[in-house]
Design a protein that fits this description.
Number of helices: 13
Oligomer: single chain
Shape: globular
Largest sheet: 7 strands, mixed
Strand order of the largest sheet: 5-4-13-14-15-12-16
Helix content: 25-40%
Low-confidence stretches: 351-360, 377-381
Order of helices and strands: EHEEHHEEEHEEEEEEHHEEEHHHEEHHHH
């Protein structure tokens, strides 16, 4: 390619694309709404799978750097009954099939791998319009514009680029997550730290779920899931942190105190995160000069695949552009033909949770838990 690639969004997918393009000596510029890499917290732990996310990291030439980010032992997983009984306990086997890293550190690794100036911070895209011949004009909140010959929307769930390709919009899946943290867990919250164990922990029952990860620095990061309409959450005043935590905890009456402490004893205010998804099998017809990756293309209910797929999308798009240096449309067609079924398969991982209504998600998650327990019955306590 002789022209540069314009990427909207400096998440993992957009940065991976920029990195793989850089490896192949194809210029790219990333425009990001955030004002700096430290503008906000970047989320918690990610398990990076050897069949997608790690393939992308390999294509980026960053395997050694990635291995330096892995938190040993965090691949361990346990499943608890709401009364605290351990139903399944799997140690980190050390194979590296799905090692855990901090999302912020992974993002910084990608940023550090790019030439200075690749990411233009403080550029919030507010609109995009076609100019013909595959060119598009992006407008930013400060009134500035940029014209692209190849535009990639890596700008997440509420993508400003997506409307060029599709009228689809994310819909609420009937479930929200309330996010909390416990710091210095082993000394200040020992019972909860013991319940979570050395890696991740899941406890669930009747449309209520508590997930927790052990992060770097003796921190427990919890995701408390409830299947409720948005109006139910709107009735809770999340600006009153103690009252909000108490109201959420009411939904877990009878659960073991070491589990509900992830809500009631949190060292941070509870943060509400409504969950949305695009229609299952979302795809579009080929539009010259533009495509999507990651959540902009195939936003789904959380299933452990989102970050991995975004990075693989970015890597494969970069490789396709390198393989078709004189035919951008052939590159985009090849990329999309592989990406569409991959995204649809991941979205269907939990029996279409989020795409087919609120009752399929809990059942599918319970099925997963049952499968894991039955896989290694001797591991149950």
């Amino acid at each position: 390619m002789t022209h540069g690639v314009t990427i909207i969004g400096a998440g993992l997918g957009g940065l991976m694309l920029a990195r793989v393009l850089h490896v192949h000596r194809i210029p790219a510029t990333v425009y990001e709404a955030e004002t700096s890499p430290a503008a906000r917290a970047q989320g918690g732990m990610l398990d990076i799978h050897d069949y997608n996310g790690q393939l992308a990291i390999e294509a980026a030439g960053l395997l050694d750097e990635f291995r330096g980010l892995i938190l040993e032992g965090r691949q361990a997983m346990r499943i608890l009954d709401p009364d605290g009984t351990v139903l399944f306990d799997e140690a980190d086997d050390g194979t590296g099939g799905r090692p855990e890293v901090q999302r912020g550190e992974l993002r910084q690794m990608l940023l550090d791998s790019l030439p200075p100036g690749t990411v233009r911070w403080g550029h919030k895209a507010t609109g995009v319009r076609p100019l013909g011949d595959g060119r598009h004009e992006v407008t930013f909140a400060d009134g500035g514009t940029v014209v692209s010959s190849l535009l990639v929307g890596a700008d997440g769930a509420w993508s400003r680029v997506r409307p060029l390709l599709s009228a689809a919009t994310p819909e609420y899946i009937g479930k929200s997550i309330v996010e909390t943290h416990l710091f210095e867990a082993d000394t200040r919250h020992p019972a909860t730290a013991k319940a979570v164990g050395g890696g991740s922990m899941i406890a669930l029952k009747a449309e209520r779920e508590i997930f927790a990860h052990r992060e770097r620095g003796d921190t427990l990061h919890a995701y408390v899931g409830l299947y409720q309409p948005r109006e139910w959450f709107a009735a809770i005043d999340f600006t009153d942190a103690p009252a909000a935590a108490a109201r959420i905890a009411e939904e877990f009456g009878g659960w073991a105190p070491e589990l509900t402490a992830l809500i009631t004893d949190a060292d941070t205010a509870p943060v509400l995160r409504p969950l949305h998804a695009l229609p299952a099998g979302h795809r579009w017809g080929r539009v010259p000069g533009v495509t999507l990756l990651g959540d902009a293309a195939h936003l789904a209910a959380p299933n452990g695949e989102g970050a991995n797929l975004a990075m693989l999308d970015g890597a494969e798009l970069g490789q396709a552009l390198a393989a078709h240096p004189d035919d951008t449309e052939a590159a985009l067609t090849a990329y999309e033909e592989a990406m569409f079924p991959r995204g649809a398969e991941a979205a269907a991982l939990f029996d279409g949770a989020g795409a087919h209504g609120t009752d399929s998600g809990p059942n599918a998650m319970q099925d997963l838990v049952t499968m894991l327990i039955q896989r290694e019955p001797g591991s149950a306590a």
